[in-house]
Amino acid sequence: MKLKILGAITLSALGLAACGSSPTYDNDSTYSRNSYASNAYTEYGRVTNIEQVGGDGRTSGGGAVLGGIVGGVLGHQVGSGRGNTAATIGGAVAGAAIGNEVERRRDDGAFRVDVRLDNGDLRSTTLENVGDLRVGDRVRVAEGRITRY
Question: Does a structural domain hold residue 80?
Fold first, then answer.
């Protein structure tokens, strides 16, 4: 019975994790500071620099608390007696660490992305999320969006 509950909780947690935001390279109007967002044509180039701007890496502690609770509940499903107590404490500590890290990563701030265009010009824009975009990637710049190709 405990194994079924543990499996159900694990699947629920994985399902919630999958609900996270998907990577996107769209400009968010809050962060947009580029000079080419209104251009109606497409330009091509390579990413030359990605730099984090904003975001201080601090957390509120909410992720750690929630992670600790979930970890403690999951840990409590394992063993009996002293082993159960140790598993509960270990699960709570591990869950708190994981929850804190998840919260920290979700508050990365914004990123300035520099693109050297094929014609030699340099374009800089600030994105809320760079996803899997990396320096050296070949990209297309159109209507304020940066996409790999």
Answer: no
